């Protein structure tokens, strides 16, 4: 089956930080995992480039909006590739096909009678790009950014969101897994039950946006424009073949702060277009540093490039998904990252790899012994554990339990370490027990081949390195891996350590960063 996974598209009003990189790494891991099982997978991420917030940020930098977003979007693109995030497409809402997509969707909704003209007056938070009711603010301040909401009054066009209330409630009722985790589904149901108002979907006070095709002095509300990227990204307008293959088997990975846009407005927009709702919306928690929320608004940036310099891509990717369950908030503590690197990566997986390869080189000139078809009991137990791990890790991944998937992989590492200690290959070598030693080294090599396949989606560099040092061109695929069926005649090679031991470094929250985008570009 085809799998489609998306991230929110990011506002390029400032450079990315760890919080905005997190959902993109999650989607990358999931996409790599699906591909490893042979699923045709499309992974979409990108930048959300219109609206008042971007217009203001560009002004502050003394640039026109388009050159400004070109600059910052490129920064996102670059940073993502630095963390080995490999989307099928990096979409920008200024891309021509997206401009056409939005115009086409607006025309269709208007023709259906779902868009009408009116005026709007209310309190607007420019950071959220949304209007608030007075009672939703505290002392006139936005609940998310704690900044004063501005009073805006303008002519606008409305989308008949309120007409979709009952349909939405029915959708939630029929699909209790529509929003995950479950607690977040309940939040959405309560919100919709309490009543929905029609949504103002155009701005006449903003000029940086996609003009309404039927009223060109208005630009499309940035959220209405942004959500449609999920259709642009699979060729809704052009190639109906790609669209038919990937929709609606889509998972939208998003932060908990933007749940209503995705779980309420988006399915209603799709319904209006006659398109099925997405299969699932997965809301993750927020990362904080030293208990403080970090973002471009809280006075600091968690500098991802500096984190990579200090720790490397794989330890960072591993830590983010091992430390905190995906739906919950997490505290980014560098001491914990160092500890997990040193204990779980360096001493756990790294040592197992290093000592196996050293023994292969030392006792067998690097030649990996071929396992006989007949299995000995202890070796059979390792083989069973390997296959069970693929199954259990996959069961967790299908539910986006990244942490539990990693835990089951590390349980397998513990099994292999116990097996090594029990057989003690070094004493088999001392005693000259050649066939037993072959059996043991062959078993360990197979276990590592499985581990290369299992860790690759999380840590692509380490997975590839394990495979290559075991004489394989790439890490094997999880969907087709079979115990004892590896190519024969392979030669293992020693290498440097997979995960060097780390020391804790300076704190990453630098309050002086974040004021200028230019400086970081
Ligand atoms: N442009 C909108 C999304 C439109 S999707 C059709 C947007 N952009 S954003 O750049 O402000 O945020 C993108 C994502 O980053 C959101 O899902 C948000 O939850 C996430 N994060 C921002 N800071 C975060 C943390 N500190 N921790 C985890 N995720 C956080 O919203």
Overview of the molecule:
The chain is α/β, with parallel strands linked by helices and 521 residues long. It is 49% helix and 14% strand. It has helices at 18-36, 52-60, 65-82, 96-112, 165-174, 182-193, 222-227, 229-232, 240-246, 259-273, 304-311, 313-323, 334-364, 377-398, 402-423, 425-431, 434-455, 460-469, 517-520; strands at residues 3-6, 41-47, 89-92, 115-125, 130-132, 150-159, 179-180, 199-200, 202-203, 211-212, 215-220, 250-255, 280-284, 287-289, 292-293, 301-302, 330-331, 509-510. The strands form five sheets. Strands 3-2-1-12-13-7 form a six-stranded parallel β-sheet, sandwiched between helices. The protein has a four-stranded antiparallel β-sheet with strand order 5-4-6-8. A three-stranded antiparallel β-sheet has the order 9-11-10. The longest helix has 31 residues, at 334-364. The two termini are 40 Å apart. Residues 297-301 and 508-521 have low confidence and may be disordered. The structure holds 5'-O-[(L-methionyl)-sulphamoyl]adenosine. 5'-O-[(L-methionyl)-sulphamoyl]adenosine is lined by residues 8-11, 19-20, 22-23, 48, 226-227, 254-255, 257-258, 286-287, 293-295.
């Amino acid at each position: 089956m085809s799998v489609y996974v998306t991230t929110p598209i990011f506002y390029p009003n400032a450079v990315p930080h760890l919080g905005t990189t997190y959902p993109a790494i999650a989607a990358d891991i999931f996409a790599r995992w699906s591909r490893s099982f042979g699923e045709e997978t499309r992974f979409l991420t990108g930048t959300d480039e219109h609206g008042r917030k971007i217009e203001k940020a560009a002004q502050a930098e003394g640039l026109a909006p388009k050159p400004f977003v070109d600059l910052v979007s490129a920064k996102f693109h670059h940073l993502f590739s630095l963390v080995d995030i490999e989307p099928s497409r990096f979409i920008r809402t200024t891309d021509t096909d997206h401009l056409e997509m939005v115009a086409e969707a607006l025309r269709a909704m208007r023709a259906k009678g779902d868009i009408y003209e009116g005026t709007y007056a209310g309190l607007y938070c420019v950071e959220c790009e949304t209007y608030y009711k007075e009672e939703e603010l505290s002392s006139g301040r936005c609940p998310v950014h704690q900044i004063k909401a501005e009073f805006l009054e303008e002519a606008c066009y409305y989308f008949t969101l309120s007409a979709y209330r009952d349909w939405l409630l029915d959708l939630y009722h029929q699909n209790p897994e529509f929003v995950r985790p479950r607690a977040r589904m309940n939040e959405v149901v309560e919100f919709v039950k309490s009543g929905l108002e029609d949504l103002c979907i155009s701005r006449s006070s903003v000029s940086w946006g996609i003009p309404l095709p039927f009223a060109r002095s208005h630009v499309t509300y940035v959220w209405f424009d942004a959500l449609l990227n999920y259709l642009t990204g699979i060729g809704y307008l052009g190639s109906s073949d790609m669209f038919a293959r990937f929709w609606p088997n889509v998972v939208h990975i998003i932060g908990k702060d933007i749940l209503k846009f995705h779980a309420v407005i988006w399915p209603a927009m799709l319904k209006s277009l006659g398109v099925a709702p997405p299969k699932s919306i997965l809301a993750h928690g927020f990362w904080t540093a030293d208990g403080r929320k970090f973002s471009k608004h809280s006075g600091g940036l968690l500098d991802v490039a500096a984190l990579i310099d200090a720790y490397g891509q794989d330890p960072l990717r591993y830590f983010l998904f091992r430390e905190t369950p995906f739906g919950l908030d997490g505290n980014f503590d560098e001491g914990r990252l160092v500890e997990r690197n040193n204990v779980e990566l360096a001493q756990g997986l790294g040592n197992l790899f290093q000592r196996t390869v050293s023994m292969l080189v030392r006792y067998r000139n690097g030649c990996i012994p071929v396992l006989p078809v007949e299995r000995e009991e202890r070796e059979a137990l390792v083989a069973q554990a390997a296959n069970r791990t693929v199954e259990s890790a996959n069961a967790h991944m299908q539910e986006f339990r990244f942490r539990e998937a990693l835990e089951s992989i590390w349980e397998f590492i513990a099994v292999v370490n116990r097996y090594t200690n029990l057989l003690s290959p070094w004493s088999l070598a001392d005693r000259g027990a050649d066939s037993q030693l072959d059996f043991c080294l062959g078993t360990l090599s197979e276990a590592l081949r499985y581990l290369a396949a299992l860790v690759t989606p999380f840590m692509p560099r380490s997975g590839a390195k394990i495979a290559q040092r075991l004489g394989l061109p790439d890490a094997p695929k999880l969907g087709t891996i079979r115990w004892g069926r590896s190519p024969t005649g392979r030669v293992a090679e020693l290498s440097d350590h997979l995960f060097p031991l780390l020391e804790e470094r300076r704190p990453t929250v630098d309050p002086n960063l974040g004021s200028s985008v230019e400086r970081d570009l």
